[in-house]
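WARN retry 2 of 3 for item q-0093 after timeout on previous attempt; input resubmitted unchanged.
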Amino acid sequence: MGRSILDEDHIHPAIREKVAAHHADIVREVQEAISESAVVVVGMAMNPFPRKARRLLDAAHVPCDTSGTGVTCRKWRRRNALKMWTGWPTFRWCS
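OK item q-0093 returned
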């Protein structure tokens, strides 16, 4: 079952740019990491799930980028920009 995402045609033209620009720096940071690495772990440093993902990836000898972990996701508004970009209300990692 696919996830429901509001398509751009249903976003009022007056706010499209605001939505697109909402903390765009963090979205670009993650996009850049994804373009450079096959697996990117994104999450808050205090969240045990990104740490667990990193341990499992290390155990499987899967190289991954965790450069943003704990730094890019501390503030909820910045995390919200990633949630809007991905279309998921919560996320553990991007690959």
